[in-house]
Amino acid sequence: MWRWRKRMSMRGHDGTTAGFASHELFSGGVCTVDFSPDGRFVASDSGSNELKVWETDTGDCVRTLTRHSEYVLAVHFSPDGTFIASSSCDKTLKIWCTETGHCVRTLSGHSDVVRAVKFSPDGSCLASGSDDKSVKVWDVQTGCCVRTLAAHAHYVRAIGFSPDGRFLASGGSDNTVKVWHEKTWQCALTMAAHSASVLAVQFSPDSRLIASGSRDKTLKLWDTKTGQCERTIVGHSRWVQAVDFSPDGRFIASGSDDKTVKLWDAASGHCVRTMKGHSYWVAAVSFSPDGRLIASGSWDHTLKLWGAETGECERTMLGH
């Protein structure tokens, strides 16, 4: 059943409603996926207030986590796989024990929907991005907010730590990507070449590049030292909702409202493969740690696992 998102205006930044109505509601689709560090499990939302953990080899749902009071929008495994972090429309983050499924901590402090959550590479802190226009940094052990960044002029849609732990990137509905120094939490770079909201950001494994996906239907690759846009990748016919680098950095996967997952050569920007099979918007993509699989989540209520080399759908998880 469709349900209007709580307290959300249906109007764009220009005061019009064009292009916004279909995406300011939730339908029970899968909008976030993440592999465990050992690749044995995939975590996803369920299009509700639940998280699900799936066994990669069998496609079986091995755990359902139920403590949020509204829709779950993001999940992320800790670097050692011990915990799963989640964020929700209920304005909170939760940290879950992977083994037991118990909620070990609830983090409160945002004043609006929390769209993004990521563990730092060393697992000591969490970053979250919210419709309250801020990024918050949290101490995992205490659950205390240690820093609030007045990040963007509009909603914060995506965040990601660099693998070397030195930087945090955020993408927002103000059409920008920002890069923050981890030690000072000062904004080091603002990249403003997208013509519409930035929906996804991801660092390359060597921390040299940031990939971003946008409502302007493009991916962009940014140099993390200079902030220059090195490449604009065109090929999707609708919004690009998700991006992820392969573990070796050679490829980028993207998910789009055109119902496809695309695989791109990171060096050339050429489309290597298009994966078709979802019947609705693709909102999430994630490479497995060994680079063999790509997980995708869609508003068609399914999670699919694709062979990265073949482009074939190896498994579809139902039950969302």
UniProtKB/TrEMBL annotation:
CDD domains: WD40 (cd00200)
InterPro entries per the UniProt record, alphabetical: Beta-prop_EML-like_2nd (IPR055442), WD40/YVTN_repeat-like_dom_sf (IPR015943), WD40_PAC1 (IPR020472), WD40_repeat_CS (IPR019775), WD40_repeat_dom_sf (IPR036322), WD40_rpt (IPR001680)
Native source species: Porphyridium purpureum (Red alga)
UniProt repeat feature WD, residue ranges: 30-64, 65-106, 107-148, 149-190, 191-232, 233-274, 275-316
Pfam family, one: Beta-prop_EML_2
Domain EML-like second beta-propeller: residue ranges: 116-273
Keywords from the UniProt entry: Repeat, WD repeat
Gene Ontology CC: nucleus; transferase complex
Protein name: Vegetative incompatibility protein HET-E-1
Top-level division of the source organism's lineage: Eukaryota
